[in-house]
Amino acid sequence: MKLFTTTSNLIEQMVAWRRDFHQYPETGWTEFRTASIIAHELHKLGLHVQIGKEVVSEERMGVPSDDELAVYYENAKSNGGYVKYMEKMVGGYTGVVATIKGKKTGPSIAFRFDMDALDILENDEITHFPKQFDFRSKYAGKMHACGHDAHSAIGIGLAQVLANNVDQIEGTIKIIFQPAEEGVRGAKSMVAAGVVDDVDYFLGMHVGINVPLGTVIAGADGFLATTKIDAKFTGKAAHAGAEPEKGKNALLAAASAILGLHTITQHSDGASRINVGTCISGDGRNIVPAHASLKLETRGENNSVHTYVHEQALSVLEGASKMYGTELTYEIVGEAKTCASSEELIDLVGLAAKDINGVEEVLLRSKFAGGSEDATYMMDQVQRQGGLATYAIFGTTLAAGHHHEKFDIDEAVFPIILNTWLETIERIYQYQYQYN
Where in this chain does the entry annotate a coiled-coil region (predicted)? Predict the structure, then answer.
């Protein structure tokens, strides 16, 4: 007999939550509405809920300005956010953690769900499913184009099943709702706040990732370590025709840096990536540019390769700045590690998924096709403590690729994910009995 069961009504409610979140997408550190609704639903279940600075440290990366945060706060307030919870998130501390303590002794299990959206203008064609069924984004230039709206809804659904079956829980189960995964900013600050310090088993997940509906990958590997850097060159303006020698050309410094960054020598120990995504500079055609800003990222197949690429990138930036007599400032606005899923937990998730209705194929291990993920901070912390961690992929049919204006998912994946996680809890209990 199964410890935990779900209902069709709950799946319908999860779809409703997902479509609601989809209409009000909030990017990293601005998830006031999303997080407050999650907190409200968790409180209704009678769970112990921690919010804001209780679960997010002040060591955050890539936080919007106070003025931007104030605008997003007011947007959330005007569109159904719960102010009594939002008040604890002022300043962008938008994390939420629910803890469910069972009536029996047992392990500490944590599930992580990310909440944030992307700066993308959602497609407005009638053939686009969210447009056709009236849940397209209401915020111009922002969109849930990766599936975190679905993740958030699944997290609430999981909490509801567990809250209704506390007598069956052995030990503690934490459900972590993380802000700012895009740009890999949020997990590190939640780890610093101690949210996984007592966790024995950690489970992260993602929908899609170009895996078909009915396929479950029990453990993803191959996450690329990464650093996101915002760099600024400050020079000196001058008349480009009359006195060019009196200027210090920040644009040329940035251009030289871009070329240098993309010619960093590869490392023999593994693959690396580097990309300059934006370059903004100058005020006019007849003015020596006094400022230039770059947004770039470095990635490495392992931590040592990434350290090499990152340090080389900083040297290139500094060298280009000196060559043109400018001043260089830079900020690290996102970071993630590389981390491998734990073999024992991969096996448990694989066993759990194989008998779930709708699952056609279970792959125990596969490389993460999405590049980098900051859940690796949580995975690494748990493994360093002697615990087990894995990151699963739940395939679903996509209308377009991740981070695309036409992105949408097949919600038929919802019961697959929910039931797999519930079965995984039971498998963990059985594993505890056998080996502890």
Answer: none
